[in-house]
Amino acid sequence: MIDAAELVRFLEGQLPEALELLRQMVGINSFTGNRAGVNRVGDFTAECFAPLGFVAERVPSANPAWGDHLVLRRPGRSGRSVALVSHLDTVFPPEEEARNQFHWRVEGNRIYGPGAHDDKGGTVMIWLVLQALRRLAPTVFDELAWRLFCNASEEALAADFGEVCRRRLDAGTLAALVFEAEGRRGGERFMVVARKGSATWRLTVAGRGAHAGAKHQHGANAIVQLAQTISQIAALTDYSRGLTFNVGTVSGGGSHNRVPHEAVAEGEFRAFSPEVYAQAKAALLALAGPGQVRSLTDGYACQARVDILSESRPWPRNPATDRLLAVWQKAGAELGMAVGAEERGGLSDGNLLWDAVPTLDGLGPWGDHDHCSERSADGSKLPEYVEVSGFVPKAALNAMAICKLLEGTG
Ligand SMILES: [Zn+2]
After folding, report:
1. I need a surface site. Which of 105, 167, 252, 332 has the fewest CB within 10 A?
2. How close are the terminal C-alpha atoms of the chain, in Å?
């Protein structure tokens, strides 16, 4: 077992090099839609891990407009392996970075910059953990087969990355560890043990157009039907079951003198539990079909159609994840760190992996204001930053926990 004081001392010595890697990653714009930039971050990441013995494979995204997913591997002596997960892309287009002068900027204990926290900080955290294990726990480092999965399009919620990982996970995989942002309250750090699933949907109502003066009764008003149906959708929200529906946009109709023949609404829903999610989806789809709004002349009814546009399944709280949490809590106790658990509304790659292998998330560093690039003079708006002093303790926690994980499996 690693000596805690030695571990912290070693990591402190590694921090300047880690921050230099982070500086270079943050300096490359890797907005999801910037294919070349994402690939450059992928290449740079592969270079960072090559000295640790990792070999790179690039897997094209399902969407050809996006960059390649990066898979790094290092073989192990035992049949057991650990998957480490991060992402290459950010939400910031290059024009936005330039407009808001949002670049690498060190201020006291904070480093501001696009992706400094989400999730280039997570990738650098992985590098620190592996450096420490190689030096201070070489047996653990060499026993385990390592897989490092970097998503090229995490921020766009593309699902193809899930398959990329799942096809490369073997039966001996002990855990998928997701290096997204840490949760923190006071001195307590929170690992992420569940995330909501979400789906986006479109409701299209077809009515029957008619002259609003001469043939009003012949018409079947699509907007009136849409209004009724979206009220029914909104009513599906059930906070007591962690289920929310949001009607996000509406459009329809042509001009004042026409009974509108079409109207469209789009939105999303989210839930933690797979059962609640499935029931919600069924209830939404059941709203398709003939509506209550009809023409008075012949009973012609408006028709509602519901399409699911995209889906990310929920990651519910589950025993395999809780067993991993317990390992991190034990490691925390040894290091004098309080470690708790958090269920998050937002999605991560954990949603794509939890039902294939035991999954734990939130292994990344602490920071704040993710997905924000603006800074106001009065300080009421601040952009994304990562906390410098949080790297070493969290890397120590992760390294210690991985040692315990391997011990626990004998
Ligand atoms: Zn992220």
Report:
1. 167
2. 14
